[in-house]
């Protein structure tokens, strides 16, 4: 039986990927200039980043409960199972709302087999999990097999990233304001990672060259099976740096594939222009 896949806009994958693979799409919300938009639907990342460079402070909120419910209902009506791989619950309330909406839908469709996974991933790391889930769906696996495999994939996914200005993360409550102040001094670049779906500072490095070199070192310490995996790179208004990082990764590890994509407006509203993030599978 076919298993349908659902994901949200925080995966930072192009809309064309969702459309080509018939994946249900749930947009998070972005507020800018007292107007509310749907991420990747009525506002795009470049618009948000440009506004931030001009001093604006966009805010984000979880996906609309009704949008989530309507998406679930769409697949419930097919009589086939569905799997929603959700943005990290440590960064958004979308997962919790989805669980509530799933319960409502199941009251109307009690036989609907809907599974929801808290990916504990973000941006293109989350996107890699969605891509992996899609491959499993196409290969004809059962929903139980897909759910188990995707949870394991997410548990071994590393997120290593840096930002130009920690003020944006502090403004959104993602890190402390004290950390933001220190990080803004003397060209110190923060290196962060994810632990249990939350952003955790790793270390501080002075200068871009040392930063990129340190990212490669961290990848070497944590990564494994490079020839068999896809590495993700997401970036915000700094494609040149992302391309430089891509070349360093290719030279050091020769992975099966490297995919790149801009950070979406929901994630970008918190990380800001100059964000660079690398995603890869860790050692088992």
From TrEMBL:
So which domain of life are we looking at? Answer: Bacteria
Q: Name one Pfam family in it.
A: DegV
Gene3D superfamilies given in the database record:
3.30.1180.10, 3.40.50.10170
Q: Where are the annotated coiled coils located?
A: none
Q: Keyword Cell membrane, does the record have it?
A: no
Instruction: Report keywords, A-Z.
Output: Lipid-binding
Keyword Cytoplasm assigned to the entry: answer is: no
What function is annotated for this protein?
May bind long-chain fatty acids, such as palmitate, and may play a role in lipid transport or fatty acid metabolism.
Under what name is this protein listed? Answer: DegV family protein
């Amino acid at each position: 039986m076919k298993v349908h896949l659902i994901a949200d806009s925080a995966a930072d994958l192009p809309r064309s990927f969702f459309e080509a693979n018939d994946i249900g799409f749930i947009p998070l919300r972005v507020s800018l200039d007292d107007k509310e938009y749907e991420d990747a639907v009525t506002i795009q990342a470049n618009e948000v980043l440009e506004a931030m460079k001009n001093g604006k402070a966009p805010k984000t909120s979880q996906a609309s409960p009704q949008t989530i419910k309507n998406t679930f209902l769409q697949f419930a009506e097919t009589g086939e199972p569905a799997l929603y791989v959700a943005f990290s619950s440590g960064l958004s309330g979308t997962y919790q709302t989805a669980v509530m909406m799933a319960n409502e839908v199941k009251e109307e469709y009690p036989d609907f087999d809907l599974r929801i996974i808290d990916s504990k991933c973000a941006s293109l790391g989350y996107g890699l999990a969605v891509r992996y889930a899609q491959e499993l769906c196409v290969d004809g696996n059962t929903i139980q097999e897909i759910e188990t495999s995707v949870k394991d994939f997410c548990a071994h996914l590393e997120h290593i990233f840096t930002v130009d200005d920690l003020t944006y993360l502090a403004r959104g409550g993602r890190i402390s304001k004290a950390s933001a102040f220190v990080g803004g001094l003397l060209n110190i670049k923060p290196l962060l990672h994810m632990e249990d779906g939350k952003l955790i500072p790793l270390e501080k490095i002075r200068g871009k060259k040392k930063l990129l070199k340190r990212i490669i070192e961290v990848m070497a310490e944590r990564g494994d099976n490079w020839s068999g995996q896809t590495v993700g790179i997401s970036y915000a208004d700094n494609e040149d740096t992302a391309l430089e990082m891509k070349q360093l990764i290719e030279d050091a590890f020769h992975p099966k594939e490297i995919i790149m994509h801009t950070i979406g407006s929901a994630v970008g509203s918190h990380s800001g222009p100059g964000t660079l993030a690398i995603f890869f599978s860790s050692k088992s």
